[in-house]
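Form 7-S
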Amino acid sequence: MLIVDAQVHLWDRGTPNPWHRQAPSYTKEELLAEMDGAGVDRAVIVPPMWAGDDNGLALAAARAHPDRLCVLGRLALQDPASRNVFDSWLDQPGMLGMRLTFGTPEQQAWLHDGSLAWLWPATEKAGIPVMLMCFGHVETVGPVAAAHPDLKLTVDHLGLGRDKDEAAFRDLPTLLNLAKYPNVSVKACTLPIYSSDPYPYRNTHGYLKQVYDAYGANRVFWGSDVTRLPGTYRECITMFTEELDFLTGADIEATMGRALCDWIGWKV
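Output:
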């Protein structure tokens, strides 16, 4: 079975967020060693917020290991020059899309105030898949999806914030409502951090079942965010492949990698 991690970070600068490993760097060599140890075939690098908007480190890793790594890169949304990059964005070796993060109140306001009205038609026209970290503001994805039906949108972390257990999933109905848009998918990544239970984090399974019932396995992508995991990389995999009784057969293969590759155009 092909296993593709929908979210990993590399960095060589900045101070990691407190919920990630507190290390000055995390290299492609370290990542590949952990992937090999856990049985992960491929991974999507999304450059982290704390390292700025430079995609160079991630792209260098993808160029060095094109069979194992690709990039969904950051875009400096407030830089006027960013409006001129779309036609050539996917020409960068290893680059398969964008990953946009809205973690601060200022950035979250852009989702509501029309500041990004230029972005969505540009990405749609260029055929650039977009992943969004927009917890607390998932409802803003619906109008974008409706207005731009050819734009592939992926909601990161199931739209969850930084709470645990029932509180973490309080906005799940909003995410489930987005399933009516066929151009919206979700990343079921870092699920262990949203539970205070031990492995296999059973108090998250019922919520996951609702997500699969709404979206289907072809629009739910497993991911680890490995430098943020409380348990092991391998456990993050087996939680899905061995512990979810509603996920079987072809659906496991889809959600563990094949569906993501199809979505972002990563040839298998």
